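Incident log, support desk, overnight shift.

02:14 A customer reports that sequence design results differ from what the structure should imply. Their input is reproduced verbatim below. On-call engineer (initials T.W.) acknowledged and began investigating.
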């Protein structure tokens, strides 16, 4: 063993990790995700038009923004590339809710997260979470959805004691 084995501290970071991946438009399925106008969206429906005189079948996508619920549409030739967001979901327990809606969360491993606020979409979700948590009387788990460097709470469940 050499004296300088501690010289190489390897950090595990997402250096240069992409938040989206390329995919052919024809490969995207209903219920899948895709980027439309720079927004991560969940595909609601796809209609494919026949090949025209220029030889490309077109995919007409109807999708909803996963963070705002806004409906978006896009039309892409099926053989052309588009981008698909990498979407992650994780479960966190609410430790505290501040007056301004800032949350303190903890995961199963004991890691704390303090950079999230109560969601503003759908309109009633924030109030429902506050009511369920009841000033810390109940244990409430929230589902955090993350894509393209945005994180937002999309669901919650009250744990029964």
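02:41 Re-run completed on a clean worker. Output:
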């Amino acid at each position: 063993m050499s004296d300088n084995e501690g010289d190489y501290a390897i950090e595990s970071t997402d250096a240069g990790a992409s938040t989206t991946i390329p995919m052919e438009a024809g490969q995207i399925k209903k219920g899948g995700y895709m980027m439309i106008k720079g927004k991560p969206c969940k595909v609601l429906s796809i209609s494919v038009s026949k090949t025209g005189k220029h030889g490309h079948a077109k995919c007409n996508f109807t999708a909803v923004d996963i963070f705002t619920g806004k409906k978006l549409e896009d039309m892409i030739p099926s053989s052309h590339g588009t981008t698909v967001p990498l979407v992650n979901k994780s479960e966190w327990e609410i430790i505290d809710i501040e007056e301004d809606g800032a949350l303190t969360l903890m995961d199963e491993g004991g890691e704390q997260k303090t950079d999230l606020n109560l969601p503003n979409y759908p309109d009633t979700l924030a109030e429902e979470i506050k009511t369920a948590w009841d000033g810390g009387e109940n244990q409430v788990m929230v589902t955090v959805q993350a894509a393209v460097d945005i994180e937002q709470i999309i669901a919650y469940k009250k744990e029964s004691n």
